[in-house]
Write a structure and sequence with these properties.
The structure is a single chain. This protein is an all-alpha fold. The protein contains 18 helices and 2 strands. It folds into 2 domains: about 130 residues, no CATH class; about 260 residues, no CATH class. A two-stranded antiparallel ribbon has the order 1-2. The chain starts with a helix and ends in an 11-residue tail after the last helix.
Length: about 400
Amino acid sequence: MKLPTSAKMVATVALLGLAVQLGTSQHFYKSALLSLFFGVTLASVVSIHFRVRPSWQDALSVIGAAALFTVIDFGFLHFKPSSAGIASFLGISSLSTLGLRAIWSQGAEQERMALAFLPALIFVTSDWGSTILLGWTEQANPRVLDLYLFSFDSSLQVQIAFLIGQAYALWPWFRAAGTVFYIALPMVIGLVYAGQLLRDRTRAVSAMMAFLITGPVGVVFYNLLPAVGPIHIFLSEFPWKPIPAGQVRRLLVEPIPVEGLRNCMPSLHMGWVLLAWWYSRGLSVWERGIAMASVVFTTFATMGTGEHYLVDLVVAFPFAVFLQGLCALGLRWNDRARVTAVWYGLLLTLGWIGALRLAVKSFWISPVLPWTCCVLTVASAIFVQGRLEAATDRCKIREAVPPSAVPVAVF
């Protein structure tokens, strides 16, 4: 799309004005830039930027603008220095540079820059706004259902979240590795998206759509089964003093008033890393290796930090399949594999929530029952997701082969 020079000038001024306003705003700095996770989200723009367009000119521009923000904010405005703030300055500078490239480039270069800039901008904005949605969820649900999730986990006869929490406390290197991958989630998402943007734009757009809607859709499910995580329920008792299974069996499960973000069921962190792993298919070995390592260490980190129960992670599997089915742009809406993925993921996620809310005591009949449900959920999700990928591949092959190339039988 070719824009007149006047429109490009207006867009440039607006973009740079917004960057300066945000980069020097004390309110924005305190509310967003001091958040390490948000700082990493902004910094992930840098990884997208230089994966899509490696350039010394852009690097000097980004470093120079970030240095200018640092001098102004820390030297003249006297903001409290922080590593998250510096990472955020790099992210704002990179995002601005990408935006300028999208405005002033032409042809295929402009399209590529726009596909790098717009999703990155939306991703950063949605991450900043997620706290608002979570705040509304807490106000709408003053009581949480953590005892229901704790009861299910205990019915397995092994309180896995407590065991991993103990490992986190005993092995600092294990905790450090898990924390790095847990916080670096936006970097992994940016890595996968940028890689697919260079390889397969349709798949890249599908991936970013799935990454973007995970948060808002997940908040809807948070309201269906609000929970905060075992560390917020058991406090200093976690992870060293788990309640024996025999006592939990007789525990009265009921909603309890607890402060905290209702962001447990399903685990969106687990959903995001699963999507990153699935969408990394076709990328290089090192990119896939990072995505898989993120899945492994996030699995431990979500429970080791006491923020999730095991069942949260299990339900994240069908939830992620549901999202990938919704965003499978390479397939028609009525494609059997896509329809199956959407309905399978949605109904199984809702089925788990219904079972945990209404019939959690039924899982205590035998440990075989909850374990079987967990294994079947994970296995079936992987199977349905594989069918979705296979259908997407077949569709690409059909589109790549022109009709004239298809052999016709002559009788």
